Amino acid sequence: MKKYGFFTATLVLLALATLLGYGIGSRGAELSGSTAMASGDSASSERKVLYWKAPMDADFRRDKPGKSPMGMDLVPVYANENENGESSDVRINPAVVNNLGVRTAEVKQGSLSNRLEAVGYVTYDEDTITSINTRADGWVEKLAVKTVGSAVEPGEMLYELFSPKLETAQREYQTALTSGSQSLISASRQRMRSLGFTTEQIEQTRRGQKVSDRVSRRSPTAGVVVELNIREGAYVQPATQVMKLADLSKVWVQVEMDEGSAALIEKGQTAIAKFEAFPDRQWEGTVDYIYPTVDEKTRTVKVRVRFENPDRKLQPNMYSHVTIKTAPQKNAVFIPQMALIRTGQSQRVVVSRGDGRFDVCPVEAGTSSGDRVEILAGLRAGQHVVTSAQFMLDSEANVDAAALRLGTDKPGCAAEPASTEASMSTMSMANPGTATPETAEKMPSAMPGNDMPDMDMGGAMQPEQDKAAQP
Known about the structure:
The chain contains nine helices and 28 strands. The chain has 471 residues and is α+β, with helices and mostly antiparallel strands. It folds into four domains: 1-46; 101-109 and 333-365 and 373-453, conserved putative lor/sdh protein from methanococcus maripaludis s2 fold; 115-125 and 248-329, Elongation Factor Tu (Ef-tu), domain 3 (Beta Barrel), CATH 2.40.30.170; 129-246, CATH 2.40.50.100. Residues 250-326 form the CusB-like beta-barrel domain.
């Protein structure tokens, strides 16, 4: 009986211990889960994911992680501001800046050598073009030069003309010589010159050379035939242009310069030309003339550069790369050309503020020199501008919001371009009574179509405005 009672008591104690242990374990798990949930809720409230987007295409968005059309992992877009409470147009997690291909360059100040580069093409030096015309009517009996492009030397025969008028002039000169009258000799000699006889041909007639009704015409200069308008047997008159000759010992290169750089070019400046046909050689010439008009289609100014061509290697219509050296600008602020974003309405750059923060800053660009461009307003020396992936960052930023935070109101921007006040004034007129300092920051979110304000890429880009204020 005692054994039975002891056994029963033991079973009761074991049951109570089991129940007590289960209760304690359940309570601990509940407390642990509550703590983890609270921690998760806190983290979630700090880093709320708005959506997921493709790193290379801001328009490709999903509500959950996945792959972009290019096979890249989608990155989250968050809804919080930076740690310092300062807003910036775009934020990127510093750990992924290099992965996105973001590169920067320092804004420099100093002497900017204006090296203007452009393209051009070779043309004949029009000062050397000679028009060959006959001064008496007749027929071309023999044509010595039969193709365009043929080279001729001074004194070389071009064609032979049958003309009774020329024969008459020779006979009159010989008759005057026989008469001994100086006035007749002078008059007949002058008539032969006016009909195109050379000094040598007149002298041969004076020495008694047999008169002929076929007279040869010879080249007055060295050159090439650039135009040929007759054939053998053709009837010609004094108004007929027989051919044109051009000397290739000097050539022109017609250069098309951007109208914004035309003010820097002056007559007499040195120009260096390279040609694809001669990659290991360059020619040095001088600016000969700046044309006074701007092409209405290309918006360029034509500049004429003269080059010596003694070996006649440069030929018309050859393509060339021309560099014109102009006077350097001192104490200029400049950046790499690739950092400047040009649109139809504005010029801007993306400024890096460090720690993955970027601001889109409007600037006023000046002249370009090779791969550099002068900045007249909007930046200061020592800042860093984005030279790679800047278009992706610019597309993520809210440009309208950036326009309202120009100048000193925006930490990344140094100075306000001259056109800023006008643009802000325009926006104030479009929204009367709303462009006050207190409401300026709220205007972008209230504008139609402006649903995506300043973005940040925390593994991606995240908005810098307070989402709690939005409905």
